[in-house]
């Protein structure tokens, strides 16, 4: 094959691959557009703040990344923007319990026990959203996560029937740049998986089970 036509084929292949990777990102951001804000005051009232897990320290306490999400959710609760917190994380083994660590942090910050619900099987963002709807009966929520992750989280929650908006937690300029480059690149692949999970196969969460109560207790005053 002459060199120039071969170069065109290679360039076309690269362009097609880039389009395949970027199209899900564009679709998800279009569907989430206008439903996210960085200021808690700018968001409408919803039933709960839905907080996906984001890792624990070696001591079993919440990571600083997860702490930022929890602080955002607690701010929403204190403002009366939500009536409770749904804390969703990984508890696949007894020694790793994200939801309980999240609850302990919220309690230390003054959130009453009656306003906290725990989901022990939020193994990924899709499972967190699907279980919020199907297990806890959530119909409206403010999803609280870092800005790079938020469009996907809002999209996935809306795909399972939750009237979701999102609070964007600071990431670029707050999280080390090398980590943010990694997270943002990984998000491109995660967006493609989100479209597959929610828009094409409508997959089941890893664990379901019976309905569980959603604990709501509006903040006093």
Summarize the entry for a quick read:
This protein is of the alpha/beta class and 221 residues long. The protein contains 6 helices and 6 strands.
The radius of gyration over CA amounts to 19 Å
The helix content, as a percent range, equals 40-55%
Mean pLDDT metric:
90
Strand content: 5-15%
Distance between the termini: 75 Å
Write the layout of secondary structure elements.
Elements: H1 3-32, E1 36-37, E2 48-52, H2 64-79, E3 85-88, H3 98-108, E4 116-119, H4 125-134, E5 140-146, H5 150-159, E6 163-169, H6 177-201
Parallel strand pairs: 1-6, 2-3, 2-5, 3-4, 5-6
Helix pairs in contact: 1-5, 1-6, 4-5
Keywords:
6 strands; 6 helices; 46% helix; 221 residues; alpha/beta; single chain; 13% strand; six-stranded parallel β-sheet; Rossmann fold
Can you put this structure into words, describing what you see?
The protein has 221 residues and is α/β, with parallel strands linked by helices. The protein has a single domain, classed as 3-Layer(aba) Sandwich (Rossmann fold). The chain has six helices and six strands, in the order αββαβαβαβαβα. Strands 1-6-5-2-3-4 form a six-stranded parallel sheet, sandwiched between helices. Strand 2 (48-52), helix 2 (64-79) and strand 3 form a beta-alpha-beta unit. Helix 1 crosses helix 5 (150-159) and helix 1 (3-32) packs across helix 6 (177-201). It is globular and about 70 Å long. The mean pLDDT is 90.
């Amino acid at each position: 094959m002459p060199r120039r036509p071969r170069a065109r084929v290679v360039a076309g292949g690269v362009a097609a691959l880039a389009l395949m990777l970027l199209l899900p990102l564009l679709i998800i951001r279009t569907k989430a557009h206008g439903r996210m804000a960085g200021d808690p005051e700018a968001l409408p009232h919803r039933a709960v703040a839905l907080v996906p897990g984001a890792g624990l320290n070696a001591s079993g306490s919440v990571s600083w990344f997860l702490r930022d999400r929890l602080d955002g959710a607690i701010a929403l609760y204190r403002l009366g923007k939500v009536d409770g917190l749904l804390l969703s994380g990984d508890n696949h083994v007894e020694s790793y319990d994200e939801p309980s660590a999240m609850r302990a942090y919220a309690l230390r910050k003054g959130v009453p026990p009656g306003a906290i619900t725990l989901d022990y099987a939020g193994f990924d963002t899709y499972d967190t959203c699907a279980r919020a709807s199907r297990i806890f009966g959530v119909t409206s929520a403010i999803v609280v996560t870092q800005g790079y992750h938020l469009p996907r989280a809002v999209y996935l929650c809306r795909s399972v029937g939750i009237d979701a908006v999102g609070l964007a937690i600071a990431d670029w300029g707050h999280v080390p740049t090398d980590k943010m480059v990694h997270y943002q690149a990984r998000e491109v692949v995660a967006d493609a998986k989100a479209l597959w999970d929610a828009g094409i196969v409508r997959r089941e969460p890893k664990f379901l089970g019976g309905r569980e109560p959603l604990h709501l207790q509006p903040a006093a005053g």
